[in-house]
Amino acid sequence: MKQVKFGQTDLEVPSIILGCMRITSAEDPVKVIESVVEQGITFFDHADIYGQGECETIFGSALKETAIQREDLFIQSKCGIVPGEMFDFSKKHIIESVEGSLKRLQTDYLDALLLHRPDTLFDPAEVAEAFDLLEQQGKVKHFGVSNQNPGQIELLKKFVKQPLVANQLQFGIKHTEMVDRGFHVNMNDSFATDRDGGILEYSRLHDMTIQAWSPYQYGHFEGVFIEHEKFPELNQKLRQLADKYETTPTGLASAWILTHPANMQVIVGTMNLQRLKEIAHASRIELSRKDWYQIYLAAGNVLP
Question: Chain-wide mean pLDDT for the chain?
């Protein structure tokens, strides 16, 4: 399993993260946890809203049935979304969310807590108070954000003393906006539109680990592009290069992200054990520059 440096810390963490949003669909959650740990995937991503808390409950109970030691895992959760109502970065909500996650996960601490999407009504000083308290109590070791742009991160950093180590952003072969703009600087085509304030370059400059979510999706949760009839050219290229690198199209799609030098992790949500093995195996594959660009172009992107 390829390891990456986690933000500004000295930690080396797996490049593949198991996202636990779909753990409710797993026939045997215990077997899933044991299998991925055997593959070197020891980083688990949660959120207080996944399954309305059921996902954390299932994971916590399943982990207790294994012989795996808590200290050998990296468990991360997110808070801030009140489904269908609002975003809430208040001190009260952050602390209550963490307490709930710890109880459901049956653990004394989170290795990382991310703020889940931006809350425009947030008071950064209040967030700082919550982070300080959680750190002092030993309940959270590291902090980060999700789906935030450089301006939002800088505003938070003005008040928060803890390093913001990670940012979860959607990125994959069919969701390439983070890199498109960089190719089309000083041009007036649609690819030149700056939609995120240069978050890719910002993350690299400030040593923030990008955690790529929904890496195999196209559009906004429209579906998986791998083996989809809507993308014949892309899938032909993926099959061709998968043979070359002795992997699968899914493994190759993961390697495509990890080949980028921006210190990324890939969040995978499948509970299919064979697919997880394929992805884990592909984590150490580094595509050639030519092959990386061939996939980018086959996905329907253009270069100036």
Answer: 97
d(CA 93, CA 119) in angstroms, rounded, equals 12
Q: Which residues are catalytic?
A: 50
* C-alpha to C-alpha distance for 7 and 18, rounded to whole angstroms: 18
* pLDDT tens figures, 215-239: 999 987 789 999 999 999 999 999 9
Q: Which of 164, 162, 169 is nearest to 264 (CA)?
A: 169
Which residues are within 8 A (CB) of 38 and not within 5 positions of it... i.e. 6 or more apart?
none
Q: CA separation (Å) from 54 to 59, 76, 105, 146, 186?
A: 9, 16, 10, 21, 48
- Asked whether the predicted pLDDT for residue 279 surpasses 90, the reply is yes
Sign of the four-CA dihedral 171, 268, 259, 242: negative
195 confidence band (pLDDT: 50, 70, 90): confident
Q: Is 108 exposed, middle or buried (0-12, 13-18, 19+ CB in 10 A)?
A: exposed
Assign 128 to helix, strand or coil.
helix
